[in-house]
Structure formats: C-alpha cells, structure tokens
Amino acid sequence: MFSSFLVVSRESFEAVMIIAIILGFLTKTKQTQYKKYVWSSVALGLILTGLIVYILKITLGSYTNRAEGFLGGPTLIISSLFILSMVIWMAKTGASAGNKLKEDLIGLVESKRVWGLMFLVTTAILREGIETFFFLLAVIGTENSQGILIGSLLGLLTSLVIGYLMVKGAIKINMSSFFKVFSYLLILISAGFFAHGIKKLQSVETIPTIIKKLWDTTWLIDKHSLFGGFFKGMFSYDPKPSLMSLCAYILFLFIGFYTYNTLSNKNK
C-alpha cells in the first residue's frame, strides 16, 4: 500500500502543481478567460489517460504462473528503470522545468493560441497518468490489489489536499526538499522492483541463480506479517534473497543515488 501511495501522491502532486502554476499565471496576468480551456484540457487528459491505460491493461493481459516469470520479471525490471529515468530527469531539469513552463505559457497567451494551451495541459496530464500506470504496473508484483487501490486513493487525496492548501497560501513547502525526499524513496522502491524482477527471471531459469538463498530472515521478519508486509510493499523485502538479486539491489541503489546526487548538485 505504501509503494502505491508514494507513487500516486508524487505523480498526482506534480500534475496538481502544473495546473496550479498555469491557473496562477492566468490569474496574475488577468487572463482568466482561458481558465475554462485549462479545465477542459484536464478533463480531456484524464479521459485519454483512462482510454490508453485500459488498452494497455487489455493488451498486457493476465499472466499464467509460468508466463509470470518470463513477463513479470522484465515488467518489473523495465518499470524500475523507467522510475529511475524519471527521477534522474527531474534531477537534471530541476527548477528549469517550471521556468520553461512559464515561458511557454507567456508565448501561448500573448499569441492567443488556445489550442496550444489546451495541448500543453492535456499532454501534461496524459504524461503523469501514463507514468503512474507504469509505476503501478511494477507495484502489482509486490502488493495485493486492495492495498494498491487504497494506497492510490490515499495518494491522490493527499496530493489534492496539499496542492489546494498551497494554492490558498495555507501552507508553504520547500519544493526542492519535498521532491528530493520523494526521489530518494522512489529510488529505494525501484531498486526493490529491480531485484524482484531478477529473482522472477531466476525462478524460470532465464538467468543463472549461482547461490539460490544467501540467508533466511523469516524468523525475524515474516513478509506476511504487518511489519514484513510494509517492508515488502516499500522495498520488495525478500527474506530469502539470491546472490544475484542482492547484488542487483545494491548496484541499482549505488547507480541511482550517485547519479541523482551528482545531477542535483550540478543544478544548485
């Protein structure tokens, strides 16, 4: 539940902030007549996201026990790399993304290109929605459907409430620190997805196992317990890791944190 909560709250908060920036800009420049196009574009973006997600869901289908190893493993690995690429992209663009958005808005409003404004908003919603789908695709391999649903709804609600309070000036958040904490957590989660994907491929003998079980910590933290369930959902906790899955986890963390911190420090 925590993984889905974190993923949805981060992605939906980013979408909320984009809409807040656009609406704030239109209010500040006294161009409120364009707000109706913004909300129409939000609705269109949500509808298109729903349709694309539905098509992807049908296309991917459900896996059999045997196919899950072949398809579930690559899905987890690809999703983890996708999450990491988004985190690194945010570290690379930094504050310039917000400045670029404002520059685009100025050009669109000054030239009265309504369709351009609608395209900007629609693609922003669509991008965040598709990203969320692929993130949750990886979460499916580590959480049950009920936990994913509850976590997703709580994440969406949290982002909407925080976004609303920020727009109204009720609270102030250091956006740099906020996204940095979220990025660190996403790297931790995606590392767990990556290692879990490696182990799934090992289960169907797609890649060598070498050492099947390094240790067994079930006696200490059972993954079916409340505490173990949290760690399983958060970090894809595995009480019986193989040598390759553990190495994959450590390597992923090292590359993820090193790359993110290097790019973040460059943009300071």
Q: What's the total number of strands?
A: 0
Order of helices and strands: HHHHHHHHH
Termini separation: 34 Å
- The number of helical runs is 9
Estimated structural class: mainly alpha
Quick overview:
Helices cover 78% and strands 0% of the residues.
Walk me through the topology.
Elements (H helix, E strand, L loop, with lengths): L1 H27 L6 H26 L4 H29 L2 H15 L3 H26 L5 H23 L7 H29 L22 H10 L7 H24 L2
Report on this model:
Helix content is 78%, strand content 0%. It has 268 residues and is mainly α. The protein has one domain (2-266). Mean pLDDT is 78; it is low at 63-69.
Write a concise keyword list for the protein shown above:
268 residues, mainly alpha, 78% helix, 0% strand, elongated
